[in-house]
Amino acid sequence: MPTTCSGARERTEFASIQIGATAQLTETITAEQVEAFANLTGDFNALHMDAAFAQATNFRRRVVHGMVAASYVSQLIGTRLPGHGSLWTEQKFRWLAPVFIGDTLTVQVMVTAKSPGSNTISIEAKAVNQDDRTVMAGEGTVLVVEPREASRDVSLAERSALITGGSRGIGAAIAWALGSAGVKVTVLYRSSSGDAHELCERVRGVGGQALAVQADVTDYDAVSAAASRARDHFGKNIDVLINNAGIPFVPSPFLETAWGAVQQQLGVHVHGAFNCCQAVIPGMLDNRNGRIVNIGSMHSWSTPPAQWTGFAVAKAALKSLTRSLAAEFSSKGIRVNMVSPGMTETDFTASVPDRVRKVQAMQTPLRRLASAEDVAGAVVFLCSEQSSFLSGADIPVCGGSAM
User: Fold this and answer.
1) Radius of gyration over alpha carbons of the chain, in Å?
2) pLDDT in tens, 45-71
3) CATH 3.40.605.10 fits 156-397, yes or no
């Protein structure tokens, strides 16, 4: 329901501003106000200031500066809706009829849209005189400035993490590293039940807390249910999300690649990450604290290998998603980053010919391939307070092959 704001207030929180909300004021314009405006702006136009000059025009009397009426819109925005801390970023006015000294104006602003990503609202404004004639109309954009809140340092031992594709390879190394550091870890797996439960047993064996949950990341309902189970099990919102899930990829020439194969890669890497983010970000917003790390690839940093179209497209899209989320949520305490490994010694690369792997290692300044533990170390760093001023970053774990 639209609401009407009456009376000055400190401020309205962005989340509580409703589309359709209105605020208005009624003001009778005096000669003293016109004089003050002219002194402030230097606009001594005779039509506004010289009664004799105005008498000789079709208006017959002094016309009030148009921006005096517009200033009442500014007053409403700055004191009532949204109130203190708001900032006009764009406006457009149409003056439909002249305003004269002694006129009584009723000025109203109404919220027509909200943009949570930019913390802005769109408004419509209207001024009506004592004869019920609209003398001014317009629209604008208002930034609702949120007070800076000092974020509370949260140690790893206080965090709860959801790791997708967490039963094997890089995901398992990340789950082990976080679990060993005291993070409550939920290992999300699609089919490797035995590996996932064995990993959780190892974490619990060193005093950690771990839970294995089966879910397909391309199914939002399954992801949401898994996140709810983790919250219930550990008694707190998930505040760390690692999007690591992937599927096997077989290189193929572009002209022999079906779009369905590309969609499979996009489905897991991008749609899966999208689903997981939508499932856990509301809880992070409640806490004004969260860490999201997406596992990318060096193929989005440099020239991708030929015939890897589906995988390269998916990882590039995941990089774009990382930046978009960082732009939208960093101001709300949620840091979103990416780790992009080079060729890493995992089951995923086991099918790569040994000669290719050796050549890749020799072309790397550190003269070896990455290990899953190398990648996990970068992820742990991004989840810790040691990286408190990083968001939207993509860290290449590649031994120096990209600089």
Assistant:
1) 29
2) 999 999 999 999 999 999 999 999 999
3) no
